[in-house]
Design a protein that fits this description.
- The chain is α+β, with helices and mostly antiparallel strands.
- The chain contains 21 helices and 22 strands.
- Strand 10 (about 160-165) and strand 11 (about 165-170) form a beta hairpin.
- Helix 1 (about 15-25) packs parallel to helix 9, helix 11 (about 440-450) packs antiparallel against helix 12 (about 455-480) and helix 15 crosses helix 16 (about 525-530).
């Protein structure tokens, strides 16, 4: 029935879609298998993309030729750049999205890729011969052969939905769970575990009183994720903010005895940084209120996502408590919140390419690796799709360093340190976040993606022009000055101390109160020059000038670490032969099989003295 494919991708969530698209872009024939073609790229939880650190990941995916940023831009209800009051390392783009349009755009994108075929079915087994993945077997009993398999099963592996005391088998509300695959993989020697995540109720927006809530609009000038010129909707939608109160909390507490979290029916660990409302009340008992974000699900639908009210309490308790929130007095619920428990595979069983250590040509990406979030899933899917193609064609693998991308931090953390709770990316996880900003993802990663064949010559030329133009403007500011008479009136306006002599533009812009438009206001020639350049180039110039000394210090640290990161370790090295290593270090090193000395140094349980032993042996 089926011809052999180069790559089979199992699951059409955010990881699966990026994996299929990346492999197809590189030239592989791809079969994307999903249990339900009607919910490809479903936003299972909140209808939003990006946020703190997550927005940086989306820009990195886009810089390398992935599609999450483009799809998000095409379906944006509202766009905000978060943390603008902080330094540029913390600026994080976030969009509120039309859930139905987002899924539709992903499907249309996949259907436009000539190398992608799709099939609706459930995969029950990975065909493994001589330690290598050779294809899959579906629930219809169809055997489909391939050179590599990418598993992106999300929350569907033996998924159980919890609402109060009710338990329903399912990977998402209204969709059945996937069974059989975990059991087969464990027979192959893989270790599995259980995790939990949750989602809030959805309500009818017509039943809410928005006059009792705070309005939350997006940025006046609508931003975007993608570095491409994709068209974005011009209109925006408002979101709102309201709060819980003591009465809400008291009603919620009446359902605690039926909560699957507190009664122990849920064994899996949930995301620490996105707790349920009952968990918030329990953990932060001193707080008398919690913030609720009221978010629209689309341009045309009246459905509302109640962000901040994630819960698995009985549905009657959910509704009763919700109606005590200001603005929700007459709320009509479309569907209750629920918790979902599912299988995952601890990611220390993977290589940095996301290929499994136990079975060659088998890759894991997304929540199957213990992560949470569309953005983390999409990034892993992209890397897995690229590396599956590279692997079967004996081409150089794509491994991003911690110093060059958030995606590199994400994958290195998972593979090197593992996770026992749903992993979420934060800016604090990146040691070099000043270098890994959302504004320079194209500069960092597009040249690398171009070498692999993931982006066009035109995109590379655009990046090269941005770099050349910003470098020119920086040098111009180093060589040209502003006079006292030009600059002091502007400095007085912003409360900055006046100049006592003619000064270089570069040094004036280094002041924290001054931005590049202030200098343009003072100097007509410079203002005319800036008018010739795009906003992205001007922003890049300002950041380079203001943080010049910090960048230099950060690069010194990166270069010092580079020696360890570049020192490769034979993957078949016998650590047991080094008796001077601690027993724990030997066990961990044998399990992770680090690629480099730098990666080895980040493994929990491997001490600095163990690294010293390795360095001496390797030298």
């Amino acid at each position: 029935m089926f011809n052999k494919y180069n790559i089979i991708v199992v699951g059409a969530g955010h990881a699966g879609c990026e994996a299929a698209a990346a492999a197809a872009t590189l030239g592989s024939s791809v079969l994307l298998i999903t249990m339900n073609m009607g919910v490809i790229a479903q936003m299972s939880c909140n209808p939003a993309i990006g946020g703190v650190a997550k927005g940086q990941i989306v820009r990195e995916i886009d810089a390398m030729g992935g599609y999450t940023g483009i799809i998000a831009d095409k379906s944006t209800l509202q766009f905000r750049m978060l943390n603008l009051s902080k330094g540029p390392a913390m600026w994080s783009p976030r969009s509120q999205n039309d859930r139905m349009r987002f899924a539709e755009e992903w499907r249309l994108t996949l259907e436009s890729l000539p190398n992608v075929d799709m099939w609706q079915d459930t995969v029950k087994e990975v065909i493994v011969e001589n330690g290598r993945a050779r294809g899959v077997v579906t629930s219809l009993g169809i055997r489909i052969e391939a050179d590599a398999v990418v598993l992106t099963n999300g929350t569907f592996l033996n998924g159980i939905i919890h609402i109060g005391e009710k338990k329903i088998g399912g990977g998402r509300t209204g969709e059945k769970a996937a069974t059989g695959l975990t059991e087969q993989l464990t027979t192959l020697g893989f270790e599995s575990g259980r995790m939990k995540t949750g989602t809030p109720p959805r309500v009818d927006g017509r039943s809410l009183n928005y006059s009792l809530m705070e309005e939350q609009w997006g940025d006046e000038k609508k931003g975007r994720f993608s570095y491409t010129d994709v068209d974005i909707p011009t209109e925006q939608r408002c979101c709102w903010i309201t709060y819980t109160n003591d009465k809400v909390h008291e009603v919620l507490k009446t359902g605690f005895e039926k909560s699957p979290m507190f009664t122990g029916r849920i064994k899996g660990l949930g995301p620490r940084y996105c707790p349920s409302i009952e968990d918030k009340i329990n953990r932060f008992a001193e707080r008398d209120r919690h913030q609720i974000f009221v978010e629209p699900e689309g341009f045309k639908t009246v459905e509302i996502y109640v962000n901040g009210f994630s819960t698995s309490l009985p549905e009657d308790v959910q509704l009763k408590a919700m109606r005590l929130i200001p603005g929700f007095e007459n709320a009509k619920m479309y569907r209750p919140g629920y918790a979902i428990e599912y299988d995952y595979f601890p990611p220390m069983q993977l290589d940095l390419t996301l290929e499994t250590l136990k079975v060659k040509h088998l890759f894991f990406a997304g929540q199957i690796n213990g992560t949470t979030g569309y953005e983390e899933a999409g990034a892993q899917g992209f890397i897995a799709g690229v590396n599956a193609h590279q692997r079967i064609n004996d081409l150089h693998e794509l491994i991003l360093k911690r110093s060059e991308s958030y995606i590199g931090v994400l994958i290195d953390d998972l593979v090197t340190k593992g996770t026992e709770e749903p992993y979420r990316m934060f800016t604090s996880r990146a040691e070099h976040r000043l270098l890994l900003r959302q504004d320079n993802a194209d500069i960092r990663l597009t040249p690398l993606a171009h070498k692999l064949g993931l982006v066009t010559d035109e995109r590379l030329e655009k990046v090269n022009k941005k770099v050349a133009d910003s470098d020119y403007l920086v040098n111009y500011m180093k060589q040209n000055s502003v006079s006292i008479s030009e600059m002091n009136p502007v400095l007085e306006e912003v409360g900055s101390s006046p100049l006592t002599q003619k000064s270089r533009m570069f040094s004036v812009l280094s002041r924290p109160q001054i931005n590049i438009t202030d200098i343009a206001k003072a100097n007509t020639e410079f203002s005319n020059l800036l008018n010739q350049y795009e906003e992205e180039t001007i922003e890049q110039t300002e950041i380079k000038v203001k943080y010049d000394s910090y960048f230099a210090k950060e690069m010194e640290i990166v270069n010092r670490m580079k020696k360890m990161e570049d020192k490769e370790i034979n993957p078949n090295f016998d650590y047991n032969s080094l008796t001077s290593l601690s027993i724990e270090a030997r066990e961990k090193l044998l399990k992770v099989k680090p690629r480099t000395l730098g990666q080895a140094s980040r493994i929990s349980g491997v001490s600095p003295s163990d690294i010293s032993v390795l360095m001496v042996h390797m030298s």
